Amino acid sequence: MATYLYGLILARNAPRMPATLGLEDARARVLRCETLGAIVSTMEEAPARPTLDTVRIHDAVLQAAVDAGATAAAVRFGQSFAGDDEACRHVIERGDRIARVLEQNDGCVEMRLLLASVPEDDPPPTPEKEIGPGRAYLESLREEKDQTEHLALRGAIGPSVRAEKVERLPRSHGVVFSHLVLRDEMGEYRHAISTLPALADAKVVGPLALYSFAEPAS
Amino acid sequence: MTDANLEEIYESEQLVLSDLINRVLDKGVVISANITISIADIDLIQLDLRLLISSVTTLAKRREKAAALGHVPVRSHPRP
After folding, report:
1. Distance from CA of B51 to the nearest CA of A (A)
2. Which tens digits make up the pLDDT trace of A38-97?
3. Which of A112, A169, A211 has the CB atom closest to B28's CB atom?
4. A129 reaches B (C-beta below 8 A)
5. Is there a contact between A41 and A6 (Cβ–Cβ < 8 Å)?
6. For residue A123, is the peptide bond before it cis, meaning its omega torsion is within 30 degrees of 0?
7. Which of A39, A174, B44, B67 could form a disulfide with A169 if both were Cys (CB 3.0 to 4.6 A apart)?
């Protein structure tokens, strides 16, 4: 048996977590690990590899916490432990920074603006020589970062955006703007977006758990 | 619904699902040192996603054409 971890909330928000089913239809519950609550479920065996269904379920468990009013830090898919005690031990050992993020951003959610494509200023550079797949992946990450550094919406949307991160979706031309927004300012945020003609075709996703803002800013 | 509408829906759905996959598999906190998700896994799910959306779009187009011709919709064969 394994304890699968979906996300982290402040322990004081644990009572908000509604009854919900996670992977293998196991009940999702909250383990109290000092100041943090770990959203977990018990599984026969940790998932060997992700599928569209398991990805959706992982996200849905976190969404249940968000919909109940808790700010949750998403945990990356695929993390499981030998049991509840082991899970808590890891959370406590590594959780100080996450606890600080959740305290600082209590009451916040992540909103994501998806755009199918944006103009690229320059074509991607032609590789000079063959490189291995690992190096190619790292180079593609660097190129994606270079191609988004000039993109920003925070100024246009206004003060409801507390923080912004921009990235290109892998293997597509889409761009994602991740915004940290106070739950109470969601209306202001959505209204600001609706007034911007450039965002008429943008897909607004959220409110979500903190994915891009789950870790402290470096 | 026109082909252009279906194309827009397809693009929109693909974008949303791509974002879902990307954020769940590539974002968020890392607590355990034993994550075994690889880039190949993300590519495999993207492939499943494209097949899923393509098959739904194709099915919708076929049903529309059948309806326009006054034919009873025929169950499509699954993609190999």
Report:
1. 12
2. 999 999 887 778 888 999 999 999 999 999 999 999 999 999 999 999 999 999 998 899
3. A211
4. no
5. yes
6. no
7. A174
